[in-house]
Write a structure and sequence with these properties.
Oligomer: single chain
Helix content: 40-55%
Order of helices and strands: EEEEHEEEEEHHHHHHHHHHHHHHH
Largest sheet: 5 strands, antiparallel
Strand content: 5-15%
Distance between the termini: 16 Å
Length: about 475
């Protein structure tokens, strides 16, 4: 086992001073400075104040425990700030103590360790740094490069001390999470079973692939289908047999593909070229721009848009002109905004690309088609999952289910359309519409993305402890 050669988290030094006396005083000396005389039963608070006077900064050493007594009483515990790392033990002068053994014995219970780096994790692989001090000069890290460095290996993003399957999952997380959330991955840079270091075991790799595939099919995909309002498909995926020892690739791919086809149908309908004002019956009521839903939104909309613009929006919803003189076609405005929204929705699907597509082409793939399966099996499962997840994302941002749950977030088409109508003179209305659609897609999908991250944390915990 490699263990950890280069820690990234400081360990606080902890020392004890056991005073065996019934009277008198003693002093403590550290780094050439000496406290005032301390009573044999000095309070921990007073002891801390005296240590503040002889250390570099107040709070460098906090004293708890005590008091001294015949036989040693309760030892005083000196806990040093973690930033101090390894701290030389203080010395004591017990010549003025009386009773008992007349001693003030010092011992170190935990040796401090100075962190050599507190890495800021960034996307992608990086070249080996030339500066000798970590986190200075040209040092840049991804999670796996830190894991290799911590184990004292040569610079690499494929560390020998981390399970290849776990490494691929970690790379995917490292490269897809937002900057702030990515830093939480440092919690896993500890030795197994709590972390990824020293997880290499060839006999467990197939089990880990099956665990990843089970998560991909029965947890990851249902999250996105639920977000799209396609609960039947989500339930069918979640109800597939647990993939823990083997996988019927044909059955699994068939269910995933069927769910994906349903999602594609929903998203294709949402982007169809129908004039919304002509949608029949309940179809109109299902869309925020037409039917009864628009008036229902009116109170919330008036906080963000002025009355004239909303009046224009309603005229456009009926296929009328959006300029007051009737010179502009409302349907043309909708078509232009819809094109911008469609581009934004497609870009939003990148949320699932790395997990369900790019990682399939990693070596090794974290997914397994069948026990002892071939690359073709892995590609088939990964490809089917990617297509299904992508179409579920497109459906989620266009079918309005999440928007109608709250009545304060609108689907990407509605957001793009309203933004297009209120674009200022000199602005590119298509760009304004795209930006509004991107923002709205982010709001709609934020909760799902957070759930995916939470489920991935659980998966990573299980992979490390497998």
């Amino acid at each position: 086992m490699a263990g950890i050669t280069n820690p990234i988290v400081s360990t606080a030094e902890v020392q004890t001073i056991t005073v065996d006396a019934t009277g008198g005083t003693f002093t403590v000396t550290w780094n050439g400075a000496t406290t005032s005389a301390l009573a044999f039963n000095v309070s921990a608070a007073t002891f801390t104040t005296e240590m503040d006077a002889i250390t570099d900064d107040a709070g460098d050493c906090v004293v708890t425990g005590g008091p001294g007594a015949a036989g040693g009483g309760t030892p005083y515990t000196l806990t040093w700030a973690a930033k101090k790392g390894n701290v030389p033990a203080p010395t004591t002068d017990a010549t003025s103590l009386t009773g008992g053994a007349g001693t003030a014995a010092v011992a170190t219970s935990t040796a401090g360790v100075s962190a050599l780096a507190d890495p800021w994790l960034s996307v992608g692989a990086h070249t080996s740094p030339t500066h000798v001090i970590p986190d200075q000069g040209d040092w840049q890290w991804c999670m796996m490069e830190v894991a290799a460095w911590m184990a004292g290996e040569a610079w690499t993003d494929d560390p020998a001390n981390v399970s290849p399957v776990i490494a691929q999952v970690c790379k995917t997380l490292n490269d897809t999470l937002p900057d702030a959330t990515r830093q939480e991955l440092k919690d896993y840079l500890v030795v197994a079973p709590d972390g990824v270091i020293d997880t290499v075991d060839a006999g467990k790799e197939t089990t880990r692939k099956l665990m990843c595939t089970d998560w991909l099919v029965r947890t990851f995909l249902p999250l996105w289908f639920d977000a799209a309002g396609m609960t039947d498909e989500a339930d069918e995926l979640a109800a597939l047999p647990s993939i823990v020892s083997a996988l019927d690739a044909d059955e699994t791919i068939a269910v995933v593909a069927a769910a994906g086809m349903a999602a594609r149908a929903v998203s294709d309908y949402a982007w169809s070229d129908l004039d919304w004002a002509s949608l029949p019956g309940d179809g109109r009521a299902d869309h925020p721009i037409t039917g009864d839903f628009f008036p229902f939104l009116w109170p919330d909309l008036t906080t963000d848009y002025d009355f004239d613009m909303l009046d224009t929006a309603q005229r456009c919803a009926r296929g009328a002109a959006y300029s007051s003189d009737g010179s502009d076609d409302g349907q043309a405005a909708w078509d232009a905004a819809r094109r911008a929204a469609k581009a934004a929705a497609w870009d939003a699907a990148d949320l699932v690309k790395a997990l369900a597509w790019d990682s399939t082409r990693a070596s090794p793939s974290p997914w397994l088609g069948v026990t002892g399966g071939t690359d073709a099996d892995e590609d088939a499962v990964g490809l089917a999952a990617w297509q299904a997840a992508r179409d579920a994302v497109l459906a989620a941002v266009t079918n309005g289910t999440l928007a109608r749950d709250t009545y304060d977030v609108y689907d990407v088409r509605f957001a793009a359309w309203l933004a297009y109508l209120e674009a200022d003179d000199g602005e590119n209305p298509a760009q304004v519409a795209y930006d509004a659609a991107v923002e709205t897609a982010g709001v709609i999908l934020a909760g799902v993305a957070a759930d995916v991250w939470t489920s991935l944390q659980s998966l990573l915990d299980d992979l490390c402890s497998a």
